[in-house]
Specification:
Helix 1 packs antiparallel against helix 2. This protein has a single domain, classed as YaeB-like fold. It is an alpha+beta fold and 108 residues long. The protein has 2 helices and 5 strands, in the order βααββββ. It is 31% helix and 30% strand. The protein has a 5-stranded mixed sheet.
């Protein structure tokens, strides 16, 4: 099979996993909405896994970190998911999951 037709590997960064955990715990424990927290995480994971077959599906937002990587932005409910694409390695790196009202462009 031609490698250009193979799906990309999707990888969550440690920072993103930590943010997902914090978001889940906040919704589940602080807001006492465990079912909403579970549904949010399920939707995030489902949408992120769709990137394996269509990594450029979401809008580019430009270079927002000191390494000048180009990020894409996916919005799920009230959260912004930032990710980068490595075409040579055929990998999508899910970098951040940020509450949408935060200024995510100045986090790096």
């Amino acid at each position: 099979m031609d490698s250009k037709n193979e799906p990309f590997e999707v990888e969550f960064t440690d920072a993103c996993i930590e943010e997902m955990t914090e978001n889940y715990e906040y919704i589940s424990h602080n807001l006492k909405e465990d079912n909403i927290a579970k549904r949010l995480m399920t939707e995030v994971i489902d949408r992120v896994l769709d990137l394996a077959n269509a990594p450029e599906l979401y809008m580019k937002i430009g270079k927002v970190d000191r390494l000048k990587r180009e990020y894409h932005r996916m919005v799920v409910k009230n959260y912004v998911i930032l990710y980068t694409i490595d075409f040579e390695k055929r990998k999508v790196y899910i970098s951040r999951m940020i509450y949408g009202r935060r200024n995510y462009l100045n986090l790096y």
